[in-house]
Amino acid sequence: MAAEPHPGESTPTAPWAVEVAVAVANRAAVVARPRVLRVEERDVPAPQPGQVRVRVEGCGVCGSNLPIWEGRPWFSYPLAPGEPGHEGWGVVEDTGERVCFLSSNAFADWVVVDDDALVRLPPELESVPFPGEALACAINVFRRSGVTAGERVAVVGVGFLGALLVQLAARAGAEVVAVSRRPFALELARASGAAEATHDASAQAETFHCVFEAAGVQPTLDAAAALVRKRGRLVIAGFHQDGPRQVDLQSWNWRGLDVINAHEREPAAYVEGMRLAADGVASGHLDPAPLYTHVFPLERLGDALDAARSRPDGFMKALVVT
Q1: DSSP alpha helices (H): ranges in the chain?
Q2: What is the mean pLDDT of residues 87-101?
Q3: Is the pTM of this model over 0.85?
Q4: Is the terminal CB of the chain with fewer CB neighbours within 10 Å at N or C?
Q5: Cβ neighbours of residue 230 closer than 8 Å, sequence gap 6 or more
């Protein structure tokens, strides 16, 4: 179940849907430099042919946002208005249709989106948050994994992505073991269908048909690789964005592992994943609602990013609403 919000946070029962109005103002978050953010008034973007203007209802905070928030030598500041928000959903101005969409600047009131970069949400999702790109990521990773009923599956790293993969694998009939350092994450994994949730699965080394690495850091990559059985599948779902990694290629080679890099870069595949995610949530096959644990207004995007960085007890996913 979703955690109670910390003091000063909006509650997860805040009104998600907004009434579409004429675009007259546009607030956009601007990351001026590491850990410094301001909300500015900007011109409302004008759609071109083949585009629509969307009134943003909200946008998820992704783990991949954190390096650019913390600062790395290869980033340039200030960021463009609304960046790095890429998990947005909202309402199309002209039609009133509720959609999720692909965009990199959704920490704002309004965005312009290409027609082929959005997915219309079914009526069952009218009043719920829908960070479509994040949900599509889980769907696409799972589709590439090849998990089937009866397999032993491990998920190493139970954040938002890992928790969704636990759900999907369990509902596909796999026996799932979830691995995380956080007690809250382990409790949530059990509720999501994991047969076992543990801090350390090293005693089960080389026993899993498929292992998902879902944190994007060297320790989870090492731990996940060690669990894969001979001729098994190592699915790298985490976003390894901050430099080189070392692998024990001798061991990987000796066991004949299939290594699947499941971080998707093809926009059309993301759109298809969003469509499948919308169908899955609408039908009840996928239930992300318990994972939306913290909700912040746009003015507190910095607090949302800090929460994603520190992951206080009970934290799984932050949403920013406009």
Answers
A1: 66-70, 132-145, 160-171, 183-191, 218-227, 249-255, 267-283, 301-310
A2: 97
A3: yes
A4: N
A5: 206, 255, 256
